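Can you give me the bound-state structure? Components:
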Amino acid sequence: MAYDFKAIRHVEFSETDMAGLMHFSNYFRYMETVEQSFLRSLGLSVFRSGDPPVSWPRVHAECDYKLPLFFGDEVEIHLLVAEKKPKALTFVFKFRKLNASPPVQVARGALTAVCVKHNSDGGMAACSMPKLALEKIQTAPLELLR
Amino acid sequence: MAYDFKAIRHVEFSETDMAGLMHFSNYFRYMETVEQSFLRSLGLSVFRSGDPPVSWPRVHAECDYKLPLFFGDEVEIHLLVAEKKPKALTFVFKFRKLNASPPVQVARGALTAVCVKHNSDGGMAACSMPKLALEKIQTAPLELLR
Amino acid sequence: MAYDFKAIRHVEFSETDMAGLMHFSNYFRYMETVEQSFLRSLGLSVFRSGDPPVSWPRVHAECDYKLPLFFGDEVEIHLLVAEKKPKALTFVFKFRKLNASPPVQVARGALTAVCVKHNSDGGMAACSMPKLALEKIQTAPLELLR
Amino acid sequence: MAYDFKAIRHVEFSETDMAGLMHFSNYFRYMETVEQSFLRSLGLSVFRSGDPPVSWPRVHAECDYKLPLFFGDEVEIHLLVAEKKPKALTFVFKFRKLNASPPVQVARGALTAVCVKHNSDGGMAACSMPKLALEKIQTAPLELLR
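Here's the bound-state model for the whole set.
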């Protein structure tokens, strides 16, 4: 059973804005990267995987920014499974700046993804998540989610 | 007194992802565009404007996605001032797909921006918003915020 | 017959980088936007349009940067058809900053797109462009391409 | 003396477009990432480093696309110093898809960056590159640049 995943990124020049900070929209791209790595580590994928194929579009995204991130900063993004419903998963993400002494949490985000199947007309409909996901993914301990 | 602003965008090819939809992170860029246009319409700016200069970094961002947006879709983004504190503004954004019959709300987002001054050491500190902002910006009527 | 198209954009905050300028990669997104508007104005599309459906992936992209662009700048992007081959189109793009006195060319770019059909295995193969494109698109006069 | 640098990236979901491929503009972000890592490995930086501080804005960027890249692909980007002038560096980038058998070159790009100093009025002016760059960077052997 899995309930968390960590990845590390370095803030790139193209991710900064004229204020000199990482642009706030890029935190969502960071979350997605870790979300996908987590799913891949379980043999799943965010888009059209399995038989029948399912995808995981997001229905909610949010982020609280506490301290800025700068070009070159080394950031650990820690995904935690916050909620598991039959058709949806909510992930919490803790952003820690590692090149600070001591390392410090700079942001906290969340994504909710719904499992969908693809209809023949191109539409999508929510469906129960695959057995593999049901069996392998569990909610993280409460003390980690704080 | 101003409490809302509308802008229209067309979803660009580079804003889609392999699922064929507008990538969820781009809704935050859309929100920012309207936020800036709103501030500019009042003679303000999101970055280092006024004397002494202040900026408006975001401390919170969120979005709920109801229906997908596709390449070429015409989207109206309606900004509404949801909360006005001495040092912070919260905006709500309603996304409407105009090329639907009838037009339909596809997403709803929010940004909270804090007014900061820039210290000589490069740091930032929250401060009261400029008189111009205090005088010109008010909260939108409740019925519009629903 | 059509050989050019113009569009206007304003540089957005999220398109700047910590150097305070529009990031160089975003000029390519601007080119694409105008390219697509040009094709759309002729009843074509960059992706899977027509019967049988064809797409227009790029095989070459380039840009020369002469003067920087800043947040809020008003930019005219002028697309010109520089070369028309049976299976490929090369577009030249002139970037003009309109909020300068007088307006000034700040960059010049180019894209080459190849017409492809989609094979049943998901692959793509170059093919002759649709009759509509052949008939409607012509090369711009040489004096405009300088 | 240094004349090359390699980095590896995995194509992210947010870097794809509705055609299912990595969007062509993102190759330029990949080039930049490797360019910066190369400079950093020499104790330099792309923005305001040294005394007096210099930056390296791009004056030219280009890319030839031979084969597409897909979500999850493992890509090696190989930077080579193609030209060294007193005030400018031209880098060539070879993109290799590593998860192909055998690995295959999928694209080839180039960036030209000019060394500039910052004037007190906010403007930039080309200048000779720092002694450190002059001493440490050399042109790659011709056979590698082919």
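A couple of observations. Residues 26-41 of chain B form the longest helix (16 residues). The two ends of chain B are 20 Å apart (CA to CA).
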